[in-house]
């Protein structure tokens, strides 16, 4: 499980680096993650590493790289 979360975190970082600010729904599509849970776990990893900023904008969760 740790490896899968780490791989998804890497895909999220790459997607954000290439596209800029994205919602969790956009990240799920961009990373081809199977579930939203996979995206959220990976975002937790990136938050802990202090690599991303997460904001809530009109009921959407928006993520950007630091």
Concise overview:
The chain is α+β, with helices and mostly antiparallel strands. 59% of the residues lie in helices and 21% in strands. It has helices at residues 2-19, 24-31, 36-48, and strands spanning 22-23, 52-57, 60-65.
List the helices and strands and how they pair.
Blueprint lengths: L1 H18 L2 E2 H8 L4 H13 L3 E6 L2 E6 L1
Antiparallel strand pairs: 1-3, 2-3
Radius of gyration, in angstroms, nearest whole number: 10 Å
Helix proportion range: 55-70%
- SSE pattern: HEHHEE
Extract low-pLDDT stretches: none
The backbone outline, from C-alpha atoms, is globular
Question: Which structural class matches the secondary elements?
Answer: alpha+beta
Query: Quick check: average pLDDT?
Result: 95
Helix count, DSSP H or I runs of 4 or more residues = 3
Largest sheet: 3 strands, antiparallel
Relative strand content: 15-25%
Number of strands: 3
Distance between the termini: 26 Å
How do the strands line up in the largest sheet?
A: 1-3-2
Explain what the structure shows.
The protein is an alpha+beta fold and 66 residues long. Helices cover 59% and strands 21% of the residues. A 3-stranded antiparallel beta sheet has the order 1-3-2. A hairpin with a 2-residue loop joins strand 2 and strand 3. Helix 1 (2-19) crosses helix 3 (36-48) and helix 2 (24-31) packs across helix 3 (36-48). The longest helix is centred in the N-terminal third of the chain and has 18 residues, at 2-19. The model has no long low-confidence stretch (mean pLDDT 95).
């Amino acid at each position: 499980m740790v490896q899968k979360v780490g791989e998804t975190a890497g895909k999220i970082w790459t997607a954000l680096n290439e596209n800029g600010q994205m919602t969790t729904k956009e990240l799920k599509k961009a990373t081809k993650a199977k579930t939203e849970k996979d995206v959220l776990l990976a975002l937790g990893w990136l938050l802990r590493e202090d690599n991303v900023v997460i904001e809530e904008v009109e009921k959407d969760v928006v993520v950007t790289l630091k």
